[in-house]
């Protein structure tokens, strides 16, 4: 790829907001970090974004034409999906197989062979649309677990253009990966790319481990921050590219008058309490019940927190048609009710629970008002909320799961917790509430610097430089985060469980 090759982005969803009016569809530009980072690159080099518009083909009507005619800085092309495909490909394989498996949650997987066939068929369709629209010297950048097979589909048609892949979610360890009935096909499909990007050193290590153990003939070599895998005469480069946010946009908007007004109104209504926030899509990977149990334990064991703290838990509805997600919602509803019933008083409700999306202004006001953000996923590719909180705050505390990709970059300032350790998270909540202001500021300053320096534009630039074989020497990503185990234990460490004697 030359440095100025046209860029074609391929992702499951197109970055558009759709509205169906009486006169048909109106299509507006989408918001979000990926769009704001890739938009200027696409506009500058000329480019195209290919994806599913988010409406089943049977309901789409004139949608494809409306999307194609949308004039922006770059082109859009749609991949139509029928209702059955949305069920089997999107809900079935993507969200019922790869999503849980890659988050180490084997018990949530439904390895239905029909889902696999739909996955292959839809990936083939994405590849066909890409071939129809892309020029031979374009660079194709395929995003995420929904589209692992696109490069292989292209190769099977004799297409040798350069294609890169970025995995937004974690890559699982070998023993988990081996459970996948289609493990060999998935591994081979990944090796059809020219560059594979992971969020963290952990994910890259897991992937390389799978390659080493399952493909003994593979040759791996390191250089300039990347690993090159050589197999069957092909080279595939592999690297760690932690995704960032549009720091300036968040930082600037968080300081705006509109957000300040919302924050002041919120503060006045909430009174003199320390506000903790949780902001998540409703998903079983996000550790929401575990977090609520930790909050409950904090109120139980640290009675001084009662009537002094509240938790505002924002849950954005997601994959609502899936029974798994409905069950989770019921569990969360019950836990919230139990905590409020057990600890609430006529003048104090411990958990404020919102089950909907809020506006960006309201989200930023929440970030601003919060003494601490509780970000405790069981596993997460990165977790952008952690970074957005840092960009919006001056003296808040970030309680962050060791298993969020963001831990590798934010370990210098966050209170890192194991989300399964209910008492440990409860103690971190207490620590956050009692932390002196100068320590809070110092920790937040360290994290903010990192989020600012390693923002979404840094991410795009590093990936595209790696794709163009340029200046690899400074490409090294953040070191993998692993908790430390002291041996022998320091004299002050309390025993962690009942003695076995
Ligand atoms: C995948 C990976 C990886 C949330 N509530 C509202 C709202 N949000 C926005 C946040 C944030 C985004 O949604 C959530 O991003 P995450 O990174 O936390 O999570 P996933 O959706 O699971 O994303 C993840 C990511 O891809 C990027 O690579 O970090 O690990 O799972 O931006 O701000 N936005 C508004 N209202 C809400 O109520 N406006």
Textual characterization of the structure:
By secondary structure, this protein is of the alpha/beta class. It has 2 domains: 7-240, Glycogen Phosphorylase B (Rossmann fold, 3-Layer(aba) Sandwich), CATH 3.40.50; 247-453, Glycogen Phosphorylase B (Rossmann fold, 3-Layer(aba) Sandwich), CATH 3.40.50. It has 19 helices and 17 strands. A 9-stranded mixed sheet has the order 5-4-1-6-7-8-11-10-9, with helices on both faces. It has a 6-stranded parallel sheet with strand order 14-13-12-15-16-17, with helices on both faces. A hairpin with a 2-residue loop joins β9 (219-223) and β10. α4 packs across α5, α12 (288-301) packs across α17 and α15 (384-392) packs across α18. It is globular, with a radius of gyration of 23 Å. The protein binds GDP-alpha-D-glucose (GDG).
| CATH fold name of the largest domain | Rossmann fold
Report strand order across the widest sheet: 5-4-1-6-7-8-11-10-9
Distance between the ends: 64 Å
CATH architecture verdict of the largest domain: 3-Layer(aba) Sandwich
Radius of gyration: 23 Å
Q: How many domain units?
A: 2
Which ligands are bound? GDP-alpha-D-glucose
Q: What structural category characterises the helix and strand content?
A: alpha/beta
Name of the top-level CATH class of the largest domain: Alpha Beta
Please provide the count of β strands: 17
